[in-house]
Design brief:
Pathway: Energy metabolism; oxidative phosphorylation. By secondary structure, the protein is mainly alpha-helical. Helix content is about 50%, strand content about 0%. α2 packs across α3.
Length: about 180
């Protein structure tokens, strides 16, 4: 029994492992770019400020033009043009530090969503007050509350520590 359970468990781990490592992320460009696995068991490409040198280059497979450029890279760099140097950099890295530091406009979406939900909540509260809730009961009117308070004082409700203990029955005023 133990060996069959172990075999089933091993099969489950094997299938989970194959599912978790088979997912790859394709870059936004049309060329072949570095992929990223889920479990970090393989070298990955990352654009991060704290790790400026990724494990693998951004473009792992070169076409004919890129191969010629890589061969030209072995020669003195004074012979390379500015565009060639930039192309060589883009083979290894997707973004420059300036591009990584540049802020995004995601905050505008977040603030817009926040205002949308606040407005929707306000509309729901207004709708409930107008169409769902009825008029307040007559027992909440000022006249009724005054009559109820007077009745409680007349009945001497809770005279030791409660409501009536704050009323002076001689002067017929609240104690100060």
């Amino acid at each position: 029994m133990l060996s069959s359970c172990a075999a089933v468990r091993g099969l489950q781990l094997f299938t989970w492992r194959s599912l978790s490592t088979s997912t790859c992320v394709q870059g936004a460009h049309t060329k072949d770019v570095a992929t990223s696995s889920i479990d970090c068991s393989e070298p990955q490409y990352n654009d991060r400020m704290d790790t400026p040198l990724p494990d693998i280059p951004y473009v792992p497979k070169f076409n004919a033009e890129q191969s010629k450029l890589k061969e030209k890279e072995k020669e003195p760099w004074t012979q390379l043009t500015k565009e060639e140097k930039l192309a060589l950099y883009r083979l290894s890295h997707r973004q420059t530090f300036a591009e990584m530091k540049k802020g995004s406009s995601v905050w505008k979406t977040v603030v817009g969503g926040l205002f949308f939900f606040l407005g929707f909540t306000g509309l729901m509260i207004w709708w409930q007050r107008v169409f769902v809730f009825g008029k307040p009961p007559h027992t909440l009117s000022e006249e009724w509350v005054a009559m109820q308070t007077q009745r409680m004082i007349d009945m001497r409700v809770n005279p030791v520590l409660g409501f009536s203990s704050e009323w002076n029955y001689n002067t017929k005023q609240w104690k100060k």
